[in-house]
Specification:
- By secondary structure, the protein is α+β, with helices and mostly antiparallel strands.
- It has two domains: 2-80, Immunoglobulins (Immunoglobulin-like); 94-402, Alkaline phosphatase D (PhoD) (Purple Acid Phosphatase, chain A, domain 2), CATH 3.60.21.70.
- The chain is 16% helix and 27% strand.
- It is built from seven helices and 20 strands.
- The protein has helices at 122-128, 145-148, 151-162, 168-173, 197-207, 256-268, 296-308, and strands at residues 2-5, 10-15, 23-28, 36-38, 42-43, 50-53, 63-69, 77-80, 94-99, 133-137, 175-179, 223-227, 230-234, 274-277, 314-318, 325-331, 334-340, 369-376, 383-390, 395-402.
- The strands form four sheets. It has a six-stranded mixed beta sheet. A six-stranded mixed beta sheet has the order 12-13-14-15-17-16, covered by helices on one side. Strands 1-2-6-5 form a four-stranded antiparallel beta sheet.
- Strand 1 and strand 2 form a beta hairpin.
- Helix 6 packs parallel to helix 7 (296-308).
- It is globular, with a radius of gyration of 21 Å.
- The model has no long low-confidence stretch (mean pLDDT 95).
């Protein structure tokens, strides 16, 4: 799997079936005879056969090929580093695919009856779009009762999901980033009191390669990365979460410290679109299920801080709801969007009868789907084009959002 991507370094994640001494050979596409050997940067102690590589000192905007030594494959893989465009050209156009709720059936541990998952070909359909980035918006695995109470259970669930044949091309060709939601954290609707949340964090970090973090400022999975001129902020909606009806304290999802970190990061950002990934819906006004509307005070505070700081171009992206919709909120000249994309392969739920007062007309989708976001245009006139596709690759709806700010 390709992980994070920068101008000078990328993350490459490998899992093999049997123990072996794995190394990586890498070369520029135009210099096939100049191969460099890269040793692993990490070999897992708790999960057998996971190896991670971080080839560095790479050239920007350059295609590299690489192969794995010590495994029974002669396949050659490829990636292209981000371009050094600043002060030179307009920012490059690029594509980000995204989705959530990837349930992969396993009869031995699923509930009896009709299988909850299906349509795995959607991952091949996403790969056919050739996205630069795949952003997994939570519930990327579905922990079962069998998995919750042991380390081996977490490992089993990740291995079972990650081994899906239809997923392989997407993992190999796009740079994969992820957040989590309840089903890759613990039991359904789990909050920060979950006794094994340390396990959840450990295995999330073992199976994904988001941008490296060398700070203790945040618990959980909070992170940030940039792709060309667009900043992405990855929030944690589980680590600090309390029950929405907690009587002894102010209920919270993100927590004050994470919100204030986000506000400072958004203010610092010069990105024309500030993409904020979080496990659940923020703008939906229906106080149901795990929507932020059930945490009324924190939701109001978050939106107030964005507006009073005059932060333009904020787009929340999330999953969780097993349906797709776009919401829009306006205040004092600031427009905030909320794009929900769900589900990939799990069951479908939801109805337009749900009273979301901020839903953009004709954006509700109740079928398996994914989104492709295309960022293009000149430096001071960037545009975000959102397309929602069904599992066969047909467009369901399309919206264009002009930037509210210049870089």
């Amino acid at each position: 799997m390709l992980g994070y991507n920068t101008m000078s370094e990328v993350g490459i994640w490998v899992q093999v079936e049997q123990s072996s001494s794995v190394t990586l050979s890498i070369w520029e596409e135009t210099q096939p005879n100049n191969k460099q050997s890269v040793a692993p940067s990490f070999i897992s102690d708790h999960v057998p056969h996971i190896v991670r590589f971080r080839p560095g000192s790479l050239k920007p905007g350059t295609m590299y090929h690489y192969s794995l030594e010590g495994v029974e494959t002669d396949k050659v893989y490829a990636f292209t580093t981000q371009e050094l465009w600043q002060h030179r050209t307009d920012p490059p156009a690029f594509k980000v695919a995204m989705g959530s709720c990837a349930y992969i059936n396993e009869e031995a541990y699923d509930r009896p009856g009709k299988p909850y998952g299906g349509g795995y070909g959607i991952f091949e359909t996403i790969a056919e779009q050739s996205p630069n980035v795949m952003l997994w918006l939570g519930d990327n695995i579905y922990l079962r009762e069998y998995d919750w109470s042991s380390r081996s259970g977490y490992v089993h669930r990740y291995n079972h999901t990650r081994s899906l044949p239809e997923m392989q091309r997407l993992l190999e060709t796009a740079h994969n980033y992820a957040i989590w939601d309840d089903h890759d954290f613990g039991p359904n609707d789990a909050v920060g009191s979950w006794i094994h949340k340390d396990w959840a964090l450990e295995y999330f970090n073992q199976y994904w390669m988001n941008s490296p973090i060398e700070t203790d400022d945040h618990d959980g999975i909070t992170n940030q990365f940039s792709y060309n001129d667009i900043d992405f902020f990855l929030l944690d909606n589980r680590w600090n979460r309390t029950s929405h009806d907690n009587k002894e304290q102010n209920p919270q999802i993100l927590g004050y410290e994470q919100i204030e970190w986000l506000i400072e990061a958004l203010k610092f950002s010069k990105s024309p679109f500030k993409m904020v990934a979080v496990g659940g819906q923020v703008l939906n006004t229906a106080a149901v299920y795990e929507n932020h509307a059930r945490y009324e005070d924190e939701r109001a505070y978050l939106l107030k801080r964005i507006v009073e700081e005059g932060i333009k171009g904020v787009v929340f992206v999330n999953g969780d709801r097993h349906h797709t919709e776009l919401s829009s909120y306006e205040s004092n000249g600031i427009t905030i969007y909320d794009l929900t994309v769900s589900p990939l392969t799990s069951g479908v739920h939801g109805s337009t009868d749900e009273p979301n007062e901020l839903r953009v007309e004709n954006t509700f989708v109740a079928k398996r789907n994914f989104a492709v976001l295309e960022f293009n245009g000149k430096s001071f006139a960037r545009e975000l084009n959102i397309s929602i596709f069904d599992e066969q690759g047909s467009v369901i709806w399309h919206k264009s959002l002009p930037s509210q700010t210049s870089r």
